[in-house]
Specification:
Helix content of chain B: 55-70%
Number of helices of chain B: 8
CATH class of chain B: Alpha Beta
Number of strands of chain A: 0
Largest sheet of chain A: none
Distance between the termini of chain B: 46 Å
Number of domains of chain A: 1
Radius of gyration of chain B: 19 Å
Order of helices and strands of chain B: EHEHHEHEHHEHH
Structural class of chain B: alpha/beta
Shape of chain A: elongated
Number of domains of chain B: 1
CATH topology of chain B: Rossmann fold
Strand content of chain A: under 5%
Strand order of the largest sheet of chain B: 2-3-4
Structural class of chain A: mainly alpha
Oligomer: heterodimer
Chain lengths: 91, 155
């Protein structure tokens, strides 16, 4: 009904297109729940896009993850463990 | 991270870098020679300040292939500036196959090498990669060698 109007408001408020789309599809039992759903979804969406952007702009040649990574051919110093490397506590 | 070529330094540093990004920590990954080239270009173009400002937004800077290519004097000075800027406020992951005593061969200036090592080694973790090259182990050239030696045995 108000698709275009909501999209236009989002644009003017510098809110994402994602939020405008969420406004059409999200359901809630009352106004507050509906609003909370949209806002929390949008926050989640922003976290994902931000981390994706960070990964893409970092300049990696490949995207590797710790899944299946083996530390057996690496000599770690006494103050580091594979776990502490994975949790990035050194940063 | 110190170890011979193909032992997994780039892979581990990339893995750590990706994990950091996924936690919302900004990371920049460079081959050292490429970074130095970019710095030199920025200096010539008069955009060095802007480039450094952008670089300083990263909380982790990964310098890969450090020491594979010798640097010129300006390049070495610019790299020193980056490392000095990072001291006690950002993390650096540096991958190299050069032991510290040979760093002067890349930077040429003994005093600068000493100052760079001083900053890097104040708070550091040294990861050693003593294994054989994974690239060579996985390479199909091994099969070629095997077939050649098998043929020689048959003769």
């Amino acid at each position: 009904m108000l698709d275009k109007e909501i999209a236009e408001c989002c644009r003017k408020l510098r809110l994402s297109r994602n939020l405008a789309e969420l406004a059409q599809t999200t359901e809630g039992t009352n106004h507050q729940e509906y609003l909370y759903q949209i806002l929390s979804e949008e926050l989640h969406y922003r976290t994902i896009t931000r981390t994706e952007k960070l990964v893409n702009s970092a300049g990696f040649y490949a995207i590797n993850t710790f899944e299946g990574y083996r530390f057996d051919e690496i000599t770690l110093p006494s103050d580091l463990t594979p776990e502490s490397l994975k949790t990035l506590s050194f940063i | 991270m110190y170890g011979g070529t193909g032992t997994g330094k780039t892979m581990l540093s990339t893995t750590i870098g990706v994990a950091a990004c996924r936690q919302g920590i900004p990371v920049k990954f460079f081959r050292t020679a490429a970074l130095v080239n970019k710095l030199s270009e920025a200096k010539t173009a008069g955009t060095l300040t802007a480039f450094l400002k952008k670089l300083n937004k990263a909380e982790v800077i990964i310098l890969d292939e450090y020491g594979y290519v010798p640097l010129d004097r300006t390049g070495a000075q610019l790299l020193f500036e980056i490392i000095s800027d990072c001291y006690e406020c950002r993390s650096i992951i540096l991958n190299t196959n050069l032991e510290f005593s040979r760093w002067v061969n890349v930077l040429y200036d003994e005093q600068m090498t000493a100052a760079m090592l001083d900053r890097l080694l104040h708070h550091y973790h040294l990861l050693l990669f003593p294994g054989p090259s994974n690239r060579m182990r996985e390479s199909s050239i091994n099969e070629l060698y095997r077939s050649i030696s098998d043929n020689q045995l048959k003769k």
